Amino acid sequence: xxxxxxxxxxxxxxxxxxxxxxxxxxxxxxxxxxxxxxxxxxxxxxxxxxxxxxxxxxxxxxxxxxxxxxxxxxxxxxxxxxxxxxxxxxxxxxxxxxxxxxxxxxxxxxxxxxxxxxxxxxxxxxxxxxxxxxxxxxxxxxxxxxxxxxxxxxxxxxxxxxxxxxxxxxxxxxxxxxxxxxxxxxxxxxxxxxxxxxxxxxxxxxxxxxxxxxxxxxxxxxxxxxxxxxxxxxxxxxxxxxxxxxxxxxxxxxxxxxxxxxxxxxxxxxxxxxxxxxxxxxxxxxxxxxxxxxxxxxxxxxxxxxxxxxxxxxxxxxxxxxxxxxxxxxxxxxxxxxxxxx
Amino acid sequence: xxxxxxxxxxxxxxxxxxxxxxxxxxxxxxxxxxxxxxxxxxxxxxxxxxxxxxxxxxxxxxxxxxxxxxxxxxxxxxxxxxxxxxxxxxxxxxxxxxxxxxxxxxxxxxxxxxxxxxxxxxxxxxxxxxxxxxxxxxxxxxxxxxxxxxxxxxxxxxxxxxxxxxxxxxxxxxxxxxxxxxxxxxxxxxxxxxxxxxxxxxxxxxxxxxxxxxxxxxxxxxxxxxxxxxxxxxxxxxxxxxxxxxxxxxxxxxxxxxxxxxxxxxxxxxxxxxxxxxxxxxxxxxxxxxxxxxxxxxxxxxxxxxxxxxxxxxxxxxxxxxxxxxxxxxxxxxxxxxxxxx
Amino acid sequence: xxxxxxxxxxxxxxxxxxxxxxxxxxxxxxxxxxxxxxxxxxxxxxxxxxxxxxxxxxxxxxxxxxxxxxxxxxxxxxxxxxxxxxxxxxxxxxxxxxxxxxxxxxxxxxxxxxxxxxxxxxxxxxxxxxxxxxxxxxxxxxxxxxxxxxxxxxxxxxxxxxxxxxxxxxxxxxxxxxxxxxxxxxxxxxxxxxxxxxxxxxxxxxxxxxxxxxxxxxxxxxxxxxxxxxxxxxxxxxxxxxxxxxxxxxxxxxxxxxxxxxxxxxxxxxxxxxxxxxxxxxxxxxxxxxxxxxxxxxxxxxxxxxxxxxxxxxxxxxxxxxxxxxxxxxxxxxxxxxxxxx
Amino acid sequence: xxxxxxxxxxxxxxxxxxxxxxxxxxxxxxxxxxxxxxxxxxxxxxxxxxxxxxxxxxxxxxxxxxxxxxxxxxxxxxxxxxxxxxxxxxxxxxxxxxxxxxxxxxxxxxxxxxxxxxxxxxxxxxxxxxxxxxxxxxxxxxxxxxxxxxxxxxxxxxxxxxxxxxxxxxxxxxxxxxxxxxxxxxxxxxxxxxxxxxxxxxxxxxxxxxxxxxxxxxxxxxxxxxxxxxxxxxxxxxxxxxxxxxxxxxxxxxxxxxxxxxxxxxxxxxxxxxxxxxxxxxxxxxxxxxxxxxxxxxxxxxxxxxxxxxxxxxxxxxxxxxxxxxxxxxxxxxxxxxxxxx
Lengths: 342, 342, 342, 342
Hints:
The structure is a homotetramer. Chain A is an alpha/beta fold. Chain A is built from 11 helices and 15 strands. In chain A, the strands form 3 sheets. An 8-stranded parallel barrel of chain A has the order 7-8-9-10-11-12-13-14, surrounded by 7 helices. Chain A has a 4-stranded antiparallel β-sheet with strand order 2-3-1-4, with helices on one face. In chain A, helix 3 packs parallel to helix 4 and helix 10 packs parallel to helix 11 (316-332). The longest helix of chain A is centred in the C-terminal third of the chain and has 17 residues, at 316-332. The N and C termini of chain A lie far apart (55 Å). Chains in contact: A-B, A-C, A-D, B-C, B-D, C-D. Chains B and D meet through strand 2 and strand 3 of B and strand 2 and strand 3 of D.
């Protein structure tokens, strides 16, 4: 941590800051510059220390040196974490593919979807039973009935089931019917929920909040890891920017950035990341080329009649074609995408 | 709702879209333009109708005409809602002032704070007992012990107590000890929590999420109103932008904008909205001048030793001076700020 | 400057970085931390040094300590710069008011506008003769003819004339007819233009680019100051964010921030900063309360028939009322707004 | 264009708006909805009409239906524009590759760079002679001397030369020595410069401003097209967002979006788009997979000693490896990247 003093800071203020550093159990190295004095602080950096030093009189700014997350850090664990769950593999050279409708609407819809996405090479099935919706007047999901339909689709196809959990009360219920728990973007900083999924024996797909910084994203993962659940996947699904021609802006540089900072696998969601069906396949291919460990894509038997997110869903033919193209990109880079396909 | 067809849309596609409009129970007015056909859709607009029409073939875009929220809308209720709770008043010509530390740290700290902010004219006391923190390694609050200390401060001063609730499980507990429930920015789209506070007989201070649009913010309020709780205050606390010299960017135009769109009172948080103590008083004055119905300000007996947010907290003298200046601005515009003061 | 090494940097890499520091004529202080080594670099910081050190092997990041601007800095000149130009005063306790139409449309329009805004207390007249427009198909301004009309309005009212210059070729021409040169937001980083206005004996109103950081904004001012022209005013006119209910987001915290960092006066543009007439007066008042040294406001005799920007222009009555309210806010804070008024 | 009236608009206000529409030479279709009246306006939409109608009393908002650009539009010209200039080809199945140092530093540096990037398969050489720099104290380029060095590199290798022009005065000079003119991001809305390059017989590489919307970007291109120069390439180089772990956020969805809206080729700049050398290759591959028509990449013989942008430059070996990988991705998608290579 570097404590930068104001240019007009007094000697007394510098000394007071040094004293504070000592009280925090840290050591000070004082460097007197041409215009300012800075104090380099040595020892284990903690969030609180930064806050305390920031408010000392005469302190201009405090710059942390170390990343605030620990267990998620590449420095703690050099090897990439590979998620391996019922045929779904993400990490290393394997690119997992999660596909399916935004919402579970009926048993027929979800079973048909599962069969089709499996035939195209998907290795997990997505489908929402508990839907967090912007408006209270929108369809909120089939809840436990939907979970049962997901389980039926898994029984039928063997695909791992990925579904969202929106509340601590539901964690146990959702875990009973599914294989991978999704924490949605709106709940990325719902810390109670993070702790709850951190205590369950299920991999977690954690979506980045649309205005979360990378440090905040990794600290959210840290909440889960810190409870003992080491199987966390990070999902980039787009950030909020001034751009309005896409619903969100999908920053694929997150992939190589996160690969450098963390051992956790990185999944890309080109459906939410663009918000328009016609943009999804190109961005899925780009994600594979950028090194993503997985994709999560909205696919619906009949997007024009979907209960939600039809505007960003592929139909089966579109998904199948997208998979063919993504597979070619993966192959060109010596990686394997999804599972066996028809 | 306006359905804009692609310029190359076929007659069949136009007809299919019209048919879909009819299926939704709405009426179509077709306008054939020089380059495109548009369909003006008449009837009660619903989120779902937009989604359905958006995915029809040949449709370029769907533009909603009506606001997606209803009960929050000024068109539904013309008169401004005034929150009146134990001496705290916000709305109309009255500007409520909520002040106090970020976190409750001890009974002495919170009682002293309550006395001091009351003396300076505050009409409610803030203090966090359940703290949502970015890092799992940061101080998480005193929980029920903290709530009891807040209640003690209220007994001592008569100030209304405002405190955050972060989870549905805690709503009843927090409501027992406090007068106004705060839903934090990170939980603005935690819909279960919104529903829970919508079922409690307490005013709610709803903070805007840092990347929430105004429609999303008002729809979050709608979740609460829709459960029956009409006493909702909207709190602007800054949005996330590319600016890094402030922690968030505080857009004060939210005040007149929201006053035009909704009857709910608008509270400004200059502490989180700037993230630096020295910027707080000027932005508090600006908020009053912009027409805010209330302020929420972090004040700590000793910011340099605060458990959290010291860098954006005022000390008692600073708060008292800020209040004097805000009162002068309010007076110049024929409004009343806070309560009686020493 | 603080050079932070990677946690796995070798001793050789640290030594190479130290050698590079020496080559730059700077001194190194090496601090070996628990997880990383950092090198505190002492000496005059230059942009180039940062770039050079950033690319040394084993270097993780380089954090500058000093502001990159010099002449604009409060540390170089403690006293606020006051602009005093033909009755227009901005800085210290004086709040200058620049008002007038977006574009000069006719002599009658601009002279009438000048008279009216003067009667309401404005101390300078704005009006565009060279208009940078987003579309090549929009009205581009009356050019020299418009400049002559502005000069006529000045002759008639004595108001200082503020007008935009968009190209180095026009600087001399525009300076001939006007008192204060405006550099628009789109040209904030048109460095040739900045140099050109830096060589003219006219105060410059420099508008912040909608995505410029504060450092970039102050460095743009530095280009002007560096050429010898010390009379620079900084104009905050809103930044581009995800918000779409306003055209730009107007961050008033720029006022106290800039007052702390620079001696240059800060002018607020609530017209471009909001993009909607009905938001302008409240934001003008807020700007005054936040400590702005001046306002620049679009006022048109007949906004419904304006050649440009009608949607954000006040009419004379609206401007006059806004001025009354702003004057009350200024008075409450012991400041003086604009000039004598009818 | 759709004119949406306020819900409380009077019949008189509706009629006044209809009258205004007629005055603009357009036709009105009035649709009386359940809550509001809307007027669908038919005829050629012009920017000015929107502005005029927006300020009519009782009008809530005006929504354009047509894109504001014409000549850049896919609707005007269905076939993709292919730029073919001295061996550099971009558009259709051909992916052009522009590579070279940020700044021209010496003849040896630029000639060596040209040879190396050509050997790796680049089809054009980049190199800045006129450098727009954020700080007046940074290296500003070798100017005409640099242009001569670029010409020497072209003579040596046959590569097309791409270099930036920052001022109208320099257009002729820069065109004399180079093959493709670059307009930088900071000058995207320097309309005089756009007009000037629109009058020169050279292809133009137009970089997106970091806060430009797509409509603004295409309207900037329209300025060039409108002067008669049809050879415009659009370069996405990243936008400014809240993300700070990259210098800019590179939104690759711009590629398929622009391909749908315009016939102009789309070039991606992964160097400026990320700001960090280690992120460049993965984003270059992703750009190819997303369908980009070209790449522009910073390559320097010795990034650690570059005069500028070393932190985002590849060395020759790194560039060569990147090209190999990009070529494999292009091949997998039946496209051709760059030229012959060693």
